[in-house]
Every structure is written in structure tokens, then in C-alpha cells.
Amino acid sequence: MSRRRADSQGSLGPDDEVMPYSDDETDDELEASSEGEAEEPPGVVHVPAEAKPSEIGWKVKANDRPYHHMPEFQKKIFLCIKKSRYSGNAIRTYKYNVLTFLPLNLYEQFKRVANLYFLALLILQIVPDISTLPWYTTLIPLVVVLAITAIKDLVDDLARHRMDKEINNRKCEVLLNGRFQESKWMDIQVGDVVRLKKNDFIPADMLLLSSSNPNSLCYVETAELDGETNLKFKLGLRVTDERLQEQHQLAEFDALIECEEPNNRLDKFTGTMRWQGERYPLDLDNMLLRGCKIRNTETCHGLVIFAGADTKIMRNGGKTRFKRTKIDELMNYMVYTIFVLLLMVSLGLAIGHGFWYQDIGSKSWYLFDGKSQSAAYRGFLSFWGYIIVLNTMVPISLYVSVEVIRLGQSKFINWDLQMYYAEKDTPAKARTTTLNEQLGQIEYIFSDKTGTLTQNIMQFKKCSISGHSYGDPTTAEGVSLDRGRPVDWEWNRYADKKFQFMDNCLVARVRARKDKDATEFFKLLSLCHTVMVEHKDDELVYQAASPDEGALVTAARNFGYVFLSRTQDTITIWEMDQEATYEMLALLDFNSDRKRMSIILKFPDGRIRLYCKGADTVIYERLSPSSRHRDTTQTALDLFANETLRTLCLCYKDISIDDYNAWARKHKEAQLALSDRDAALDRVYEEIEKDLMLIGATAIEDKLQDGVPETIAKLAKADIKLWVLTGDKKETAENIGYSCSLLTDDMKIHYGEDVNEKLTVRQSQRRNDPTASLRNKKKPAEPFFTEPGKNALIITGGWLNEILYEKKKKRRRLRLRRLGRRPPPSSPQDGQPLNDKEKEQRQIDFVNMACECESVICCRVTPKQKANVVSLVKKYKKAVTLSIGDGANDVNMIKTADIGVGISGQEGMQAVMSSDYAFAQFRYLQRLLLVHGRWSYIRMCKFLRYFFFKNFAFTLVHFWYSFFSGYSSQIAFEDWFITLYNLCYSSLPVLLVGLLDQDVNDKLSLKFPQLYLPGQQGTLFNYKNFFVSLFHGIFVSLIIFFIPYGAFLQTMGQDGEAPSDYQSFAVVAATSLIFTVNLQISLDTSFWTFVNCFAVLGSIAIYFGIVFDFHSGGIHVIFPSVFTFTGVASNALRQPYLWLTIILTVGISLLPVICIQFLHKTIWPSEGDKVQKYRKKYELELQEEEKKKAPAFQRGGRSRRSSYAFSHSRGYADLIASGRSIRRRPQARGGLPSSIREAAQGEAENL
Description:
- This is Phospholipid-transporting ATPase.
- It is an enzyme of class 7 (translocase).
- The chain is an alpha+beta fold.
- The protein contains 43 helices and 36 strands.
- The strands form 7 sheets. Strands 1-31-32-33-30-18-34-35-36-17 form a 10-stranded mixed beta sheet, with helices on both faces. A 9-stranded antiparallel beta sheet has the order 20-19-29-28-27-26-25-24-23, with helices on both faces. Strands 6-5-7-16-8-14 form a 6-stranded antiparallel beta sheet.
């Protein structure tokens, strides 16, 4: 079934194949490029201008540390204190040291309004006139809260110290005092010469000077930077390579490097080296970047250009943002609300006290206290007294309880064995303890592709040769099997034992050598490539420019056609049982326009043959009319594409010697062309790559990580949208979109040009009718896609800039600024925004359009663009976002999102170190969100609702009591009860609910993803819930005060005495409160364990234990002024009617709650209630499902083909042809060649 595509044919726009401009592009660079945009007379030849010394701000002198501390390189840091502008190489991510921990931590804690409020309260309690509570009732909880938070911060910071210390203390060899000495990374400085060996990490951004490989070639693995494991190569200048091999030569090296300022551009470097009176240009090919790893190079030497915080990898980290959850923000607003409520209540009671004193207090002789204070002044003192008495409305222990719950939830994530990846011994890791409940509110996920959704491992799965398809399980005789056995490669001593192939028939045909086309097929795969080979411990190790090409050469190797070695103009392979060497006459490398590569070889018998492989769309156009098996191969390609395999066509052509000689002359002329050389070469390549004979097609699987399609499907059911943001090519990203079921055949796909057109139309409508936007402001935006059906968006970085006016506006502004005039207002036709408001509206339109789509894929985007896309959704949708990635190019995106997740796979740890959560496989994301995130959200909401309720119920008893105490700030409870209420009597049960509660178990949470929706909607904790808790607390406080109050009126004990004193009332009310709040949390507990039961009963037992102890005569004798309730508890609690009063109070307090819960679960059940009701049934179904074998994932049909050829990057052809990777180093060096630098154009795909 062919998918639908929305096209705008013929539209002009950005090149989808290239990465857009970097976001660190300087104004100078933009001005320079803007100049090029001005119209020039035809025929003018542009000569690149050499940068003036004054414009170059970064100077590095080799082997001269004092040079970098000269006054001209100093910068002011504070007042007259200056330091060198060149960073040291030590990195620092920790916050505190021994001296700053205490003051800085206390400063940070007191930035919290609640802590500052309680500090002010403590100061008020020291004032005798207004103190109604002893100072220790506030000091003890405040000290406990500050201490617990400080200990947690200290533990977190010690972990950062350890990580920094480990990195800073890594060892490398630095040239000091004329010889190489072992030194720590932290001691490296700009201008040092460093020696690196194979498998060493590069400690700083360095200029490659020389290496042990021919022509200063150095291979690096950039996994830490971009998540790609295929090797890139770097080249030193020829002059440094030839003159800087020995230690004494390096010690005498005194070049001056002038280059760009430190920036975050991973794709660009510009500089100049001045040495011995000559100037040599420098670019990115000459640079070894920090975070990369040296591979296939025994030793190399580099000069440190940028160190520490100035390195590109550190600059790419983006700004570290302080992340807070939505619940945190809501909680703070609620604390402010409580504070306002407290002020209003205190003010009202203070006014009441003023009137009461004027009417009653001043006229009652028995209330005279010997002070001649006015009623107004007494009311003023009463206001502050009630601020102290009612302070528990602002719960001091709230924040520390939240921190304890979050810490526990983080530990559960760390201990979850179902998120442990045994293959790499990698457990899940919660690297922050402050964001757990936010995991239960995610609406948008932004994911990288390479290494996150895919394993970045290519496998040769199937092929078609002469119209016959191979790859399904078969016997050697060709009998198809349902389940086959992998091919036994014991017959091939060169075979890669990890390579698996199920079709024994193809192996038998190749070994029999009776099928000429099969022989040619694998011979082509072993010869037509740009792979490098290394012999390591009698093993062949292939290094390819892309994993696709490595997979094809490995397949040929296992089938008996083994690539052994190559020189500048020969290739040697092992053909079954003999070695053969072919002369390479020309190598026509791959590029994104050609979508194919060819090689012209001279066979040992003198024949000349061209082998070609490429996309079927370009190969079929160039086939000879006499080529066979076109239709059958086309059918096979369709079948392979339906299985989302990456396909490639193989063909050949025999060339006569005369034809080759004529073509070779044209080829040489094109190579020497001074202008438009690439286009000239492409034209020459076209002449030879025609009338080809088709051999067959290959099918490679870009292996997804396990469980990716299932995870995406499950997250979609939870209404979580997944956007893929990748630096890969458009076709590659689209192919993976189909593989992981993000894209389906029933979706209509919209590309950049189509999106731009729709947005422009909407913008024109708005301009033509300005009043329409005002009229429709309150109405929902009109949808962009009015046709029924699903939509998907695939957009490149270039189009993203075009649509959001990111680049054109800046270039235009700079060009006009250079001309010395202000930009005129844009006309509606010029495609520019009229003002910032219109630009913002354009961004809103884009976000609205993207959010209408089922899937969004952004490809060829820079790290900054990834972060910008996340920011747009956060800003305009007010949505909770999560970013997940595995490389340094994902760090900015990870830091920008509300939650950042790092994949700790084989691609390095840069993303993990910047993330909030880390694990090894994408599939663990569903468990992190649907289980841990949902549970954390439910637990935190339940905890907060209950916490506010129990504090209102406790505090407002003082309010009711004030009506009977002349509003005199008298407390209704014993002061020790007030001190210990939140610390001992009611804290443990609610903490355990916050840690352990779950409405349904983890398996049912995954089975029913729709249970996740309440978190996204924020229905479990909001202002409505807050006011429900407030009124619930008011109701309970009313019952707890007035029922004991009524019971104490005109009562008589069984001993003839009436225990109707204030202290007995305080004990009865306190006991009723403790029973009520502990039984209330029992009603709210969904998941009972022994620990919960112990906590509820234990809290009640602790209350009675402490009360009887504090009310004993012994402790009163020791501290007569502190413990004043002597014998009250034992006296009051032996009265049966007081126990009846307590039971009645608790019963009336809980009865409405029980009734409401019953009605909710029977009449208005939530999704969670429904699942709980049939829990046993669903659990049995899950057990049955686990017993059955899971069916194989069925791939959907589609028509995209040749994704390999679209996605494959340029290879090492230029490098091979130049011989720089093969030639041996000359033993004796003569004078310098005329051409100092040979720039190799072949480079692997960038970010």
C-alpha cells in the first residue's frame, strides 16, 4: 500500500541534506555571509579574505605557559581581581566545598519562604509580650528540617565531587621541561603538547600535530559527542607531521595559533598557525575534540587550544536549568494562600480581642494583669500571638516530608530489577530526587534516533540475486522451514562468528560456485566499498564510514569473499580458497546527490569492470535495456521495503580498454578543474555509470532496540506524544519512523515545504483581516488539517529555520546595520515578519500544527534547534516535556525539557551526566512513566491532600477555642503536643503512603495505560483538592472541639468530681485528633503492608507512651516549669464517659468520609476504581498471556525503498585515492613539498 505524501512541487527552499547553520554563528560570520548575498557583477572572482590579526581574539603559544598569563590576556572577575581568560582543564560540577557548605546551604534553604517564615516566627517567640508558645516548639522542627535537607544536599554534592575527581585525575603524558611526563588532566593548560595513545580519551580540544599513522592520519570515535560509533578521521598538517615526530622536535615547537573564540560549534573550526615565518590554515579536520576517543592509532601528539570549560563539548552542555515540578509550583502557591489565610484569621481574632478587652476584659477585676495597655495595643499583641499559635497552618515539616518521599521513590527506581540491563550490567539511575512525581504528568516526549530508538547496529538480513530472494529459513536443498537453524560458518576461517544468516540454500549455492550471479554478487560487496581494514591478533577488524557499509562487507566476508587489504591503487580479497588482487583504476564515491558509489577495477586477466551499488531509484534509470530480472528484483525490493529493511541495488558493467582510456582523460581534467570541481566530476561519473547490468539487491536491518514499537504504542495509549529530533538525514529518520510504528501507511505525511505553505497562508489571512485575530482570540484556533485521517510531520532543520524566521531575520538586520540604516517595515509579500508579535504568532501556529499531528519527526537539526523545539512546546502548550537521548548533541535538549533522560549505552556518558534519569534501553521508558511516574504522582497527591487536611484539622481547634478564651492567643493543646504532632504522632503513616501506596500493581499499570491520564490533566491535586482539604479540616476541627466541649459542660465523673478543667479537655481533644487523623489515612490507603499497619498503630502507641510519660510526676519534679500537665492523662483517660466522647468524636469525623468514598466507588468510579474492582480477573488474564508465546512483530507495508542509499554518508574514497591512509612514512625526509596541506574531503556524517 502506497502511503500518501503532501508535496509542494517546485518550491524553493533549504537543502534537506545539509545541516542548517550553527546557533553559535557569530555576527562576524553572518556579516561575511550576508555580504555574499548582495548582488555582484557577473564574472567577479571571490578571493577568500584572510582574517586580520586584530579580529582573531584567541591566541595560543606552543610550549609557553607564561605567555597565556600576560596582562593582555587577563580578565576582571571581581573589582580589581583579575585572572587569565584561558580556562584550566579541571571541570567543576559540584556546588559546595568545606568552607562554603554551611553558609551557602543555609542561604539556599532560607530562600524558601516557609523556612524564612519559621525563622521569623522563632524570633517573635523570643519576645515575651507576644510569645504564646515556648521557643522550642518552633526551633526543634526547624532544626530537624534544615538538618535533613542539608544532609541530603551534602550526599548529592559528594557524589558530584567524586565524579569530578575521577575525571580530573585521569592521567596523560604532557611535554614539560623538554620531556614527556605523566600528568593529571586537571593540570593541563592551554599551549601544552600532549601525547595520546590508542583507546585514550582526548582531555581537551587539541590541534593534531603528528601521529604514528601515515601522513598524520588519526582515527577517532565520536560516540560521546554525537552517539555515532563509526570512526571519523582527523588529519594533521603535513608540515607538523614531518617536523614534529621526535620528543626534542616537539619541545622546540613554538608556533602561535590564532583562532576563533571558544564556542559550541561542533561542525566548524577556523584558525591560522604561524610558525617559522609561514602561515598555515586550520580547520575542523585538524582538531581532536575533548570527549572523543583515539582508535586505530598507536600514538599521536596534539597542542591544547581550548581547555576545561572552553572546550566545545562543555560549551554544548547548554545552561544548567533549575527544574521544578508542577506540584512544587502549586504547593508554593498554596503555602502563600495559607499564609494569607493565616494573616486574615489572625487579624480577625486580634480585632475580636480588642473589642472583647474593651467591653469585658478591662471591666473584670479578676482578669487585671497589672499592665496599663490600651485595647488597640493588646489587639496588636494578640495579632502576633495568633501568628505564633496558628503557625502550623503553614506546615514546616511539609518540605522535608516531600524530600524524604522523593528520595525513597528515587531509590525504588534505582532498585527496579525490571529496568536493569544485564548485558551491560547497567541499572536504572535516578540522578535527581526532586522530579519523580513529574514523571506521572508527561505529555510530550522528544527523542533522539541513533542509539536511542536504534542500536546503531546494521545486519545483513536478506538479498535478491538474479530474481531469486534469499534470507528466509531454508535447508541447503532449498526447502523452506518455519524455524531454521543459523548457518554454520566453520568452513570459513575468516568468518565473523557473530554474523547470523538463516538461508542455508544460498550458502550452498555460493560454495558450489555454480551460480555465476551469486559469485558476482558477493565479489561486488567485497570490492565496491571504502572500508578500511586492520589486522588485530589474527583477526580482521573493519572500519567503515557508516555501519551499513560495514554490514555489507561483513556479509561478503562470511560468504567466502573476504576483503583483506588495500593500497592506494589495489584491493586484495580472499575468494573462497585463493587470494586475488585487483587494480583499482577509479573510485567514484558516494554522495547525497548521486545516491550511489562505483569502483572501476582491472582484473588479473586484464578485463576492466565497473561495479556499482546504490538506490534503486537511480540504478534503474541507468540499467541497460538488455538487463534481466528487473521486474522480479523490483518485487523483491517492495517486499523488503514492506519489512522496513534498508535496500540497495547491485550492478556491473564491462568496459573496453579504449572506452576506459577516453573516460580516464576526461576524469583527470575534471579532477584538475579550478572551479565547480564537484559538478564536473559528477558529469564525468554520469558518462561511465550507464548501461549497467543488474545483479540483485541487498536488504539490511537497522536494528531497533528491543521493545521500541511496543513502548511507543503503549505511550500513545497513555496520550503521550513522541517527537523524534535527530541529526540524521530525512530518509533515514523516516525509515526508522516506519520501523518503530511511529509512522503508518494510513498517515498523510507533510514535509517542510507543505508546512511552510500552510503557515504562510494563515499568516496572510491574519494580515489581510487584522480584526479576525481579535474576534477569534477567545475561540480555539482553526485546525490546519481539515481532512479526516491521521497526519504526520517530517521537517528538516533548514525548513525549521525558514518557518520560524530564525536565520533570515538576523542576516537581514546585520546587513542593514552594516549599511548604516534601520530596517524598513516589511511588506506583506516579502515573507518576513512585520514585528516580534507576528514572529511569535508564527511560532504558535507551527506548534499548533505540529500538535495536530499524530507523529512529528525533525531531522538534520542542530543541538540548539532540538532545545528550541522543546522550548516552543513548553512555552506555548504549557505541557510537561521529557527529552531522551544518548549523545553530547542531546545534552541541550535534555537540559531544556522538564525531565531529561540519558541512555547509558555504548555511546558514552555525556548525556547521562546531564540527565535527571538514566537507563540502558528505550523500552524502560514505559515502566519509568507508566509505573514509577504514575505511582509517584498518585502518592505525592495523596500525601499533600492528607497533609494539608491534618494540619488544618489540628490548627483550627485553636481558632474555635479562641471564641471561649477572649481571643487571648491561648492555645487549646499542651505545648509539647503542638511540638510533636507533626514530628511523631502523625508523620509516619502519611510518609509510608507517600512511599508505598499503589492503586493497582505494576503489571496492571502497564496493561491499562489510560490510568496515566489523571496525571496529565492534574486532577488529583489542584486548588479544588486544596479547598476540599481545607473544608474537610474545618469540619473535623469543629467536631474535635465542640463534641468534647459539650461533653465537658455540666458533667460529673464516677468519683463524684467533674474533670471539666482545661487540661483534661486538651488531652481529650488531642486524643480524638490523633485517632481521627490516623484512621483517616487508613481509609485513604489503597495498598496495605505490614509496615503501614505498624505505622498507624505505632503512631497511636507513641502518642500514649509520650503523653503518659510527659504527664508523670517524676518528669514534673525534674522540669517543673516545662512539663505542667502533671497527672492529667492518667486522670482523664480513666473516665469511661470521656472514652465514649472520644469514640463519638472520631466516629462523627470519619462517617461522612466513609459515605462519600462509598458513593464515589459505586456511582462515580474512576478508571483506577474499575481496574481495582476486577483486579483478580485481570491478573489471571495477565498470567495466561505470559504463558502464551508472544507473537512476532508484524511490520506494516509501505513503499519507501533504498533508505541505505539515501542515508549512507560519504566514505573514505578521497582518503584512499590520495594514499594518505596507506603509504608508508618515508625513512629520510627531504625538503618540504610545494603543497603543505592536502585536505581530505571525505568525512563521515556530522551531527
